Amino acid sequence: MTIAQLVYASTASTENRPNVEEILTASRTRNDQLQVTGFLCFSNDRFLQVFEGSPVRLSALYARVASDRRHSNVEILGYRKVVRRRFSKWAMGYLANFGDPKGMLFNFSGQGDFDPYGMDFEGAIEFLSEAAHGAR
Predict the structure, then answer these.
(1) Are 80 and 121 in contact (CB under 8 A)?
(2) How far is CA 79 from the centre of its chain?
(3) Backbone angles phi and psi of 50, in degrees to 5
(4) Contact 117, 75 (CB under 8 A)
(5) 29 φ, ψ to 5°?
(6) pLDDT at 13
(7) pLDDT confidence of 131, banded at 50, 70, 90?
(8) What is the pLDDT at residue 17?
(9) Model confidence over 91-129: pLDDT tens digits?
(10) Nearest-5° Cα angle at 111, 64 to 86
(11) How far is CA 53 from CA 21, 41, 98, in A?
């Protein structure tokens, strides 16, 4: 099976506030069934997420996110086929409102605030990978 990675950024809708815990519970169950792995960061009302899995499943998941009214300004930061999964132990790993992210954020985006729209694809993957080391 071909494996791909898709990274997107979005902003929490002000009209339909997302309950991130509910999203995580549903996503972990669905992703496990679909053989999709990934990682999510949420802070300052912004999401940064990577999905890994078959290209067809990633396309369907992204379409679902893009049409979800809890998200606005949904933007793909990158997509690529990969040899192996980088987030294989996570049906959906999660890190929110990180304690002291300024050093890590500055390293990957050149900023001290969480703004996934300012990251390029490689920076987002590296940021998510490092965030995954301290996540639940």
Answers:
(1) yes
(2) 12
(3) -120, 135
(4) yes
(5) -65, -50
(6) 81
(7) confident
(8) 65
(9) 777 777 655 545 666 666 666 678 889 889 998 998 888
(10) 50
(11) 22, 19, 27
DSSP helix/strand/coil, 88: coil
The tokens of 57 are what?
């499943």
Q: How many CA atoms lie within 13 A of 12 on its CB side?
A: 14
Query: Can you tell me the distance from the alpha carbon of 35 to that of 53, in angstroms, rounded to the nearest whole number?
Result: 6
End-to-end Cα spacing for the chain: 28
Distance in angstroms (rounded) separating the CA atoms of residues 130 and 48:
13
- 3-132 has which fold? Alpha-Beta Plaits (3.30.70)
Q: Count CB neighbours of 82 within 10 A.
A: 12
DSSP state of 110: S
Token output for 37:
């792995």
- Name residue 26's amino acid: A
Residue 79 is given by DSSP the state: E
> Which one-letter amino acid corresponds to residue 118?
G
